[in-house]
Amino acid sequence: MNYLHMEQKIQRTFIRDEVYEILLDWIVTGTLRADQQIRDKEISKQLGVSRTPIREALLRLENEGFVQTKANSSTFVTPINYDEISHYYSIAYTLEKLAVEDMFTKITNQHLKKMEIVNQEMYHSIQKGEYFTAVKKDTEFHALFISLSSNSELKKMLANLKQKLKRIELFYYDKAKGVHLSFSEHKKIIAAFKQNDMNLTLDSVEQNWRNGMERIQKYLIEKGDM
């Protein structure tokens, strides 16, 4: 089985990290589907590397919950756990609010202008049905102010968690109703920053995450998965 429609060879020095990034991207974007078996021999041939860095990358992905090894030593993509969605989102907005508290005095009009541009780009992507781009723009919007935090460990935790959230959002973005409302919620975050009101900003950030979670949960309830 080819995991990509085009050849992709590893060229960078840190092969293990490169393999990890590629496999993570395949899982998050759905190239590797939930419950799909991952065969290191096939990936080795596909990427042009030995099986050792692939196994090391898979071990890292297993520790992060993206893959799981079953009793027969076969490795599979971990399915999305519907029950954990609320856990992921509550952790995300809690960490993001900590980042806001740390960076609040560092944001400038230039940052806010960029946030407005990215938010508008996200909205246009949603309107055109380009959901992959919309999710990327949503992530970029939040990254614009999170990156101003000086707490590197906090940013690492958020980055890992948001990979799991990105996988969920890519799967549901074109199904859940009201995703366009993120545009208005982002505008409220920008307005709160402009008013220099930290409490309002924190509330707006949390509400954006809560609403996103509720939109997905509503879809799952209607579908009968919750």
From TrEMBL:
UniProt keywords, alphabetically: DNA-binding, Transcription, Transcription regulation
Gene3D superfamilies: GntR ligand-binding domain-like, Winged helix-like DNA-binding domain superfamily/Winged helix DNA-binding domain
InterPro entries tied to this protein: AsnC-type_HTH_dom, GntR_C, TF_FadR/GntR_C, Tscrpt_reg_HTH_GntR, WH-like_DNA-bd_sf, WH_DNA-bd_sf
Origin: domain of life: Bacteria
One GO MF term attached to the UniProt entry: sequence-specific DNA binding
KW Phosphoprotein (keyword) present: no
HTH gntR-type domain ranges (all copies): 13-80
PANTHER family in the cross-refs: TRANSCRIPTIONAL REGULATOR, GNTR FAMILY, UXU OPERON TRANSCRIPTIONAL REGULATOR
The protein's name: DNA-binding GntR family transcriptional regulator
Species of the source: Pseudogracilibacillus auburnensis
Lineage, highest ranks first: Bacteria, Bacillati, Bacillota, Bacilli, Bacillales
